[in-house]
Design goal:
360 residues; Aspartate Aminotransferase, domain 2; 13 helices; 14% strand; binds pyridoxal-5'-phosphate; pyridoxal phosphate; histidine biosynthesis; Aminotrans_II_pyridoxalP_BS; transferase; amino-acid biosynthesis
Length: 360
């Protein structure tokens, strides 16, 4: 007999996280040849990882009997060099940026605290906050997915602990202007978490604000532009006072030695990074010009498509049957039922996507 009474009350209200579909999922469901399936549902790098990262992993394999450094020192220093932000502000995190979100929620949230979410947005903020007893407060984005700053500031209460801003936003791809982030940070005693998972594809970032403000945090990941989603590495840039508190509760050795080796090598491969960014830029234009529905402008490696009057679920299923994995956004809060998110792929993959749409 399940003993649900043993589960924390906070967990009962959490909706299960809905990940993008895997190749195995749809090979099984539709009897497809795995080699013919293209996976554009999770915003991974279609070029794969940097060859330098793969080589570093192989070379490091024999060291896996040894615990990594407790604070992933080598990786933190490489991140500091890459971002230009001092190492004393930086924490490397595993698993992925999700590990950072989880750690911050454990550090900051007590039962009844509020977190503000600008919906539709990335859903793990809500899950990690709720698991620690937070009450999520939704501030719905406008028609064009911009955030109404007045509306957001009005949603702040004395119980607000964290305001989550995703820029570029998943799933809409738009950024939040720096002056808006500053207005919010200056209007509140709460922490402002800016998720820059897709920042390498964008024309701006706000990392330089971290050393200047005592309540701005920036989260990043190696899963998207760096092509290391399977390594599960993220990092945070935090005010120094907060990093010291965070390190008290961070899971010991949460970044594996393999992740440190691969991350350092990926950061050293500017050529692979630039190729990845360029591929997204040209692919975006092609998809915008050729998908026969409204395609929102994006500063990320995905496009958001509104397939109305069709339902996202039906169009997603049609594409899945053709071996094209895209993300139905219906499970995102306040996203409606006609949005699909498509990772920008290689030229060949993007062509397949456009062909896939031709029969819809
Ligand atoms: C992918 C993603 C993350 C999580 O990345 P991991 O480092 O793989 O955990 C965080 N935020 C957003 C917006 C994402 O799209």
């Amino acid at each position: 007999m399940p003993r649900y009474e043993l589960i924390k009350e906070e967990v009962a209200s959490i909706a299960k996280y809905v990940p993008g579909k895997s190749i195995n999922d749809i090979v099984r469901a539709y009897g497809l040849d795995p080699a013919s399936v293209i996976k554009l549902g999770s915003n991974e790098n279609p070029l794969g990882p940097s060859p330098k990262a793969v080589e570093a992993l192989i070379n490091d394999a024999k060291a896996i009997s040894i615990y990594p450094s407790a604070d992933a020192r080598e990786l933190v220093e490489a991140i500091s060099e890459y971002t230009g932000i001092a190492a004393e502000h930086i924490v490397a995190s595993g698993p992925g940026m999700d590990g950072l979100l989880d750690g911050l929620a454990r550090l900051l949230i007590s039962r009844g605290d509020e977190v503000i979410l600008t919906t539709p947005t990335f859903s793990y903020y809500e899950i990690s906050a709720r698991a620690n007893g937070a009450v999520p407060v939704y501030v719905q984005r406008e028609e064009d997915f911009s955030v109404d700053i007045e509306k957001l500031i009005n949603a702040i209460t004395p119980r607000t602990k964290i305001i989550f801003l995703c820029s570029p936003n998943n799933p809409s791809g738009n950024v939040i202007p720096e002056e808006d982030i500053l207005r919010i940070a200056e209007a509140t005693d709460a922490l402002v978490f800016v998720d820059e998972a897709y920042v390498e594809f964008a024309d701006r970032n706000i990392a330089h604000l971290v050393p200047e403000y005592d309540n701005i945090i920036v989260g990043r990941t190696f899963s998207k532009a760096f092509g290391l989603a399977g390594m599960r590495i993220g990092y945070g840039m935090l005010p120094i006072w907060l990093k010291e508190e965070y390190m008290k509760i961070a899971t010991p050795f949460n970044v594996s030695s393999a992740a440190v080796a691969a991350g350092v090598a990926a950061l050293s491969d500017a050529e692979h990074l630039n190729m990845s960014i360029e591929l997204a830029r040209t692919g975006k234009k092609y998809l915008q010009d050729n998908i026969p529905f409204k395609v929102y402008d994006t500063q990320a490696n995905f496009v958001l498509v509104d397939v109305a009057p069709h339902k996202a679920r039906d169009v997603t299923t049609e594409l899945l049957k053709k071996g094209i994995i895209v993300r139905d956004c219906t499970s995102f809060a306040n996203a409606g039922d006609s949005l699909i998110r498509i990772t920008i792929g290689t030229e060949e993959q993007n062509k397949k996507v456009v062909e896939g749409f031709s029969s819809i």
